[in-house]
Amino acid sequence: MKGFSVHMFRQSSKLANVLYDIRGPVLEEAQAMEAAGHTILKLNIGNPAPFGFEAPEAIVQDISANLPVTQGYSDSRGILSARRAVVQYYETRGIHNLSTDEVFLGNGVSELITLSLQALCNPEDEILVPGPDYPLWTASVALSGGTPVHYRCAEENAWQPDLEDLESRITERTRGIVVINPNNPTGAVYSKETLQKIAEIARRHGLIVFSDEIYEKITYNGVELVNMATLTGDDVLCLTFSGLSKAYRVAGYRSGWLAITGPLDEAHSYLEGIKLLANMRMCSNVPAQHAIQAALGGKQSIDDLVLPTGRLGAQMQVAYEGLNSIDGVSAHRADGALYMFAKLDVEKFGITDDEQFALDLLREQKILVSHGTAFNWPRPDHFRLVTLPSVEVLTEALERLDTFLSGYRQV
Ligand code: PLP
Question: Per its Swiss-Prot or TrEMBL entry, what cofactor is needed (predicted)?
């Protein structure tokens, strides 16, 4: 028998530039510490359920009731009633050019992000991705063989996209612009004017807009999200991504959608590619598809949670005040999502490696945060804090962070 060699089990070279460090070595260390009996304060993953956010009852009931009758595959795009619910929902939001044929249901938005990029990118293609970004976008562009090109989101401008920088990065190889709004990791929500300008840039250069709106219902401070597809109209191809993981607190059910609007005739080849890949994975989790109609049609219980008096609103405020009260830390007020992207004074703390900073914090104070470079941020001077834990846990974590930093010097 032939002997084994490391070479036989090597991973694909396709993965050479694929990074997803928010579930990387720091998390592994935290898991090892937990296995050794330590209690870790987790401020690292935007997964509402473990923090005591229960799903609306109608969703759980709908899934349970449908379990006996959803044993088979569905249409690969998804069940018609759910796709209709998505169309009707967007109709009420001011998107009037969407049909059920252009709605694809997926195992979370994640699957649809990778699928839509796999169907598009050739090796020479470039996709503009925000920096910082939710790293699945950069990773999926790289996995699809394309090249992610990061445009700057300006911290000094409350993390709004720097449109001059964005436009300056467009080349004849650019195919699309990714917009994450509300943004993970910065919590920024983009104004209508900014979105209009992005739509205009896309129109001028013939680019696709990928609008990741998974946090669309999670906004604070009276800010309301404008759906990108209300501005891209019939002449810009817009792929809108959203789903149930965050606003409906059922990340584990894996239920999301992709809605495509714009010049569909011209996009025929790309749409056929998306259909082909959707067919190849048969369909998404069918019981979870049934939750979509119940979710979109029912009372939006998230509305109460994001009020200043609601749990999410109150926690966001505590995180904002707590971070800014620590010497050497500053953070913008987030208008949406579940995160703050806080800045560290690297001179003061001598930080040259932010992953090491996260590891040191974890080992010393048992707090788990995600380091900023995991979000394709170019400098080691940020970290992301999840605002899902209760006010008590957040307060405790921020106190420990303060204690840690008061004596911290990396080099
Ligand atoms: N897009 C963004 C911006 C996210 O933050 C996340 C999850 O954190 C996802 C997509 C993935 O969501 P899903 O659970 O629907 O796959």
Answer: pyridoxal 5'-phosphate
Mutation test of ligand 1: which of 214, 242, 339 has the most ligand atoms closer than 8 Å to its C-beta?
214
Question: Ligand 1 center to residue 407 CA distance, Å?
Answer: 35
Which atom of ligand 1 lies at the shortest distance from residue 215's CA?
3
Distance 106 CA to ligand 1 centre (A): 12
For the whole model, what pTM was predicted? Answer: 0.96
CB 251 within 8 A of CB 49: yes
Probe residue for ligand 1, chosen from 184, 257, 258 as the CB with the greatest number of ligand atoms within 8 Å: 184
- The torsion defined by the Cα of 225, 88, 114 and 383, in degrees rounded to 10, comes to 20
Instruction: State in words which class domain 13-53+304-406 has.
Output: alpha beta
| Model pLDDT, residue 173 | 97
Residue ranges in 206-338 assigned as alpha helix (H):
229-232, 268-280, 286-297, 302-305, 311-324
For 112, residues 6+ apart whose C-beta sits below 8 A from its C-beta are 104, 106, 241, 256, 257, 258
Question: pLDDT, tens digit, for every residue of 14-39?
Answer: 898 888 877 788 999 999 999 999 99
> CA-CA distance, 94 to 96, in Å (whole number)?
6
- Ligand 1 site: residues with CB under 6 angstroms? 46, 108-110, 134, 180, 184, 212, 214, 243, 245, 251, 256
Q: Which fold, 57-297?
A: Aspartate Aminotransferase; domain 2 (3.40.640)
DSSP 157: G
What confidence score (pLDDT) does residue 1 get? 62
Span(s) in the chain for CATH 3.90.1150.10: 13-53+304-406
What is the distance in A from the centroid of ligand 1 to the CA of 246?
8
d(CA 121, CA 136): 15
Query: From ligand 1's centre to the CA of 110, what distance in Å?
Result: 6
Ligand 1 atom 7 nearest Cα: 46
Task: Map residue 345 onto helix, strand or coil.
Answer: coil
Under 8 Å between Cβ of 278 and 105? no
227-280 pLDDT, tens digit each? 999 999 999 999 999 999 999 999 999 999 999 999 999 999 999 999 999 999
**All CATH 3.40.640.10 domain ranges in the chain, comma separated:** 57-297
